[in-house]
Specification:
The protein has 310 residues and is α/β, with parallel strands linked by helices. The chain has twelve helices and seven strands.
Length: 310
């Protein structure tokens, strides 16, 4: 029996050594100018892209009255220039497919609002599906806070998030691997200027929501309140199709009880807009610049009407 236990322990130690050596090799070996780990999985790319840039550009909330968190809707749908014209400093801490768990960790460790700041939680219904690992992998690789990176891996225990953390530890963090998002401006904003004709598909998608993200929506709201900031929820406009509207209706049944329990104002523009599917959208769910102008102007007007901003 003792021999079996000893053999088992040695096997675990040997496996760990082989794993760590493999991680070291693939993160220190470059093939055609690209780290070997990135050939295995593009999500392991470090230092560059939206996730890195929003952290690098963040100077704290002293000059920002309005902070937006959420998915690519957050960094493509809120233009700081429009808010500045209305006397509002804003910053978007949005990242690709960022869900509420990721938003919670970012607000807790990096994008900490100052007292009385307004924090918009951009609610994109599709980010409440799946396990979010793709989003975590990019954030773990690129956020400037090592604490935030380890916290993401801890809160989403998965071999893939662990691998992401190991790649971060063993890679050369000084080597830029990914360029900025095309069109990136400042304060986290990265517009989409093209326009695409939106499919009018009537095929209904059956939602498969992840209830942990509903839990983290509540936790995120409470965290913002504990930071003495003011949370509100906003849903970015989407093209008016039966698919989007049906999916969003089921999403509302999921999140409305949380928003009502926490007493949070929710400005829902998912289909409550006059935007044209082919003139104001760049793809199936992102606005182009013309759409952003209309959406942001409407949002600012509504926020003034509700007394959120002066």
């Amino acid at each position: 029996m003792k021999r079996i236990i000893t053999t088992g322990i040695l096997g675990v130690v040997l496996t760990a050594i082989i794993y760590l050596m493999a991680v070291l090799v693939i993160n220190r070996t470059y093939l055609s100018g690209k780290r070997a780990a990135c050939w295995i999985n593009s999500q392991y790319q470090r230092t560059g892209g939206q996730e890195y840039r929003i952290c690098k550009d963040w100077k704290g909330s002293s000059d920002n009255d309005l902070l937006v968190i959420g998915s690519s809707h957050a960094y493509r749908g809120y233009d700081p220039r429009i808010f500045q014209r209305n006397g509002i400093d804003m910053y978007s801490a949005g990242s690709g497919f960022q869900n509420t768990l990721a938003s919670f960790v970012l607000l807790e460790n990096i994008f900490i609002p100052k007292k009385n700041d307004i924090v918009i939680i951009d609610l994109f219904d599709q980010t409440f599906e799946g396990d979010g690992v793709g989003s975590y992998a990019r954030l773990i690789q690129n956020v400037t806070s090592y604490t935030a990176a380890t916290e993401l891996a801890r809160r989403q225990p998965d071999i893939r998030t662990f691998n992401s953390l190991m790649c971060r530890i063993f890679s050369d963090q000084s080597r830029i691997e990914v360029p900025d998002e095309p069109g990136y401006l400042y304060n986290g904003y990265c517009p989409k200027n093209d326009t695409a004709v939106i499919s009018s598909s009537e095929i209904r998608k059956i939602p498969s929501f992840n209830m942990s993200f509903v839990k983290y929506l509540k936790e995120t709201i409470r965290l913002i309140k504990s930071q003495n900031a003011h949370p509100i929820a906003v849903s970015h406009p989407q093209p008016k199709t039966l698919t989007n509207e049906t999916f969003h209706k089921e999403f509302l049944e999921l999140v409305m009880p949380v928003l009502q329990e926490e007493g949070i104002l929710y400005l829902d523009y998912n289909s409550n807009h006059n935007l044209n599917n082919s003139e104001h959208f760049a793809d199936s769910n992102h606005l182009n610049q013309a759409g952003v102008e209309l959406f942001n102007s409407k949002l600012i007007s509504d926020m003034k009407e509700h007394g959120i901003i002066q």
